[in-house]
Design goal:
Belongs to the paxM FAD-dependent monooxygenase family. This is FAD-binding domain-containing protein. Keywords: FAD, Flavoprotein, Monooxygenase, Oxidoreductase. By secondary structure, the chain is α+β, with helices and mostly antiparallel strands. The chain has two domains: about 240 residues, 3-Layer(bba) Sandwich (FAD/NAD(P)-binding domain); about 110 residues, 2-Layer Sandwich (D-Amino Acid Oxidase, Chain A, domain 2), CATH 3.30.9. Helix content is about 35%, strand content about 20%. A seven-stranded mixed β-sheet has the order 3-2-10-11-12-9-13, covered by helices on one side. The protein has a three-stranded antiparallel β-sheet with strand order 5-6-7. Strands 1-4 form a two-stranded antiparallel sheet. Strand 2 and strand 3 form a beta hairpin. It is globular, with a radius of gyration of 22 Å.
Amino acid sequence: MLSPNALRVLDSLRVFERIRVKGYNFTNIAFKNEEEETTDLYPLGDEHRYGYNALRIYRQILLDELRSMVHESNIDINYGKKLSHVISESSTEVVFAFADGTSASASLLIGTDGIHSTVRKYVSPSISPNYSGALAITCAIPLSDLHFPPDKDYSTLPVAIHGANGTFVIAPQDIDGSEVLAGTQKKYPEQTREDWDRLFSAKDELLTLLSANKSGWPSLVRDALESIPKETLSIWPYYTVPKLPSWSSSSQHSRVLVIGDAAHAIPPTAGQGASQAFEDALSLALLLSYPASPSDLAANLGSWQAYRQERIDRVVTLTLKLNNTRLPKAERESLDKKMIWSSESDLKELEWLYNHNIKEAMSAGMI
C-alpha cells in the first residue's frame, strides 16, 4: 500500500504516472464494531486533501516498473550476489565480500536489505530486531465469495471489523477490487527464521489458526473464513528495529549505511513501511547530490538521520495507536483513549505525514 507521501516521491521521479492505473485507488479504511456499524474512518489517502488517493498495488508490478525505468536509463542491475561482510572501510571507499567468495568496492555501501539486515550488523552490531508477539495471517479471496449483509453499509472498503477476537481486515488488492486480502493478527510465540518458513508452508496449520473462534466474528467474516483458498495463506510476523544510534558506520568513515526497514522497521498497520523507505531513498539521493567535501560526509549523514528519525518517531507513535484499535475488545477497553487512534482528535494530525514534500524540505535546509 502506497500513501500520498510515497506517491509524491514517486511522482517526482515520474513513476506515479506509470503505476496509478495498475492498482486499487481508494481513500479511507472504515472501522466497524461487532454489530458491523461504522465507528470511524481512517484516511490512507485523499487527492483533495493530500494530493493523492492511496494505492494498493502488487509489489511485483511496482518493481517491474522501477526495473523498466532503470533499464531505460541504461543503468545495469547485477543479480545473483549475496553480501557476506565488509572487509575494510576508508575515507574514500568501502570494500566488501560476497557469499560466493568474490569482493567489490564502492564509494558507499547502502543496505536496503530489510528487517534482518546483514549491513546493519556492521553499522550497529549490537542491534537486533524485536518481535512484537503478534503475527498477521492473511489470504486472498475473490470479492464475489463474500456476502455483504444487505442491512449493513459496506460502501467503504477496505474495512477493519473490530470484535472480541481482535480485528479482521478486508482490503481490495486488484485493479478493479475483484480480489481482497483478508486476515487478522494473532498472538504467537517467536520462531527462528527457519521455523517461520516452516509455518508459512504449513497451510493447514495456518487455516486452523486463522479460523479459531470463528463463531466470535460477524457473518461477513465467517463467510470469508469459509472461502479461503489455502494456497493463498500467508504470514507477517511483526518485528520492529530499535532506534539505531547511527544509520551509518560513524565509528569508521560513514561509508556504510542503512535505510528502509534495515534502519527502522515498523509494523504495517499505518501502511508506512514502503512509504518511509521511499522517503529515505529520495532524501538520501538529494543529500548525496549536493556538493560537499568527503570530510563532511559523517556530519551531513548525521543531520539527515536526525531529520528522518523525527518523522519515523511520529510514524511509530501513530502505528502504536492504530495497532491498539486492533486489539481484542477487552484489551482495547482497558487502554486510555489517548492511546487509540480516533478521527475526533487525530485526523488533522495526518497532514504532517501525507502532505510532506521531501524536495521542498531538503531545499529549505531542514537538514
